[in-house]
Design brief:
By secondary structure, this protein is of the alpha+beta class. The chain has a single domain, classed as Glutaredoxin (3-Layer(aba) Sandwich), CATH 3.40.30.10. It is built from six helices and eight strands. It has an eight-stranded mixed sheet with strand order 1-8-7-4-5-6-2-3, sandwiched between helices. Strand 4, helix 2 and strand 5 form a beta-alpha-beta unit. Helix 2 packs parallel to helix 6. The radius of gyration is 16 Å and the shape is globular.
Amino acid sequence: MNLSRRLFLAMAAAMLMLTFTAQVAADGKRASISDFTLKNLAGKKVSLSDLKGKVVVISFWATWCKPCLQELPYLWEFQEKYEDDGLVVLAISTDDASSLSSVESKAKKWKRTYKGYKKNVLLDQNSDVIAKLNPRGAQPYTIFVDRKGMSTESHEGFEVAKVPEYEESIKKLLAEKP
């Protein structure tokens, strides 16, 4: 087998492994999710592994993505409503470094819904995390993570009609024992 073919096969296998770590298996079983560390808008580092024991909803979004900007206020409402029960929403911006002021400007609009938004809006300006957890680059792309750090479901895109399903999924995960 020539070198270019072996390289191609190795890259394809790596992409399949990355995709699997970000999504639930087709049979509905939970899948492990790769850990990551990103800075939030307040400049502090946030790691997924530090949130074990909590239910985490991760949403990949961008300032130019209208469905993303529709989805996030609902997620912030859930954050406010269920924070004391152990819910954490992480909104991972996929905008590059040149768009930081736009990210901060969009995020400020959520202040009325969720005052703690600065700690939960994360910056993935090099696309390291999106490459691991959302290799197709879908936006919005939302992943639900249980208290043990396992991915339970993921959603591409956003429809307002799905908001009750999101909340039901969150309530089920919060009801599980750590």
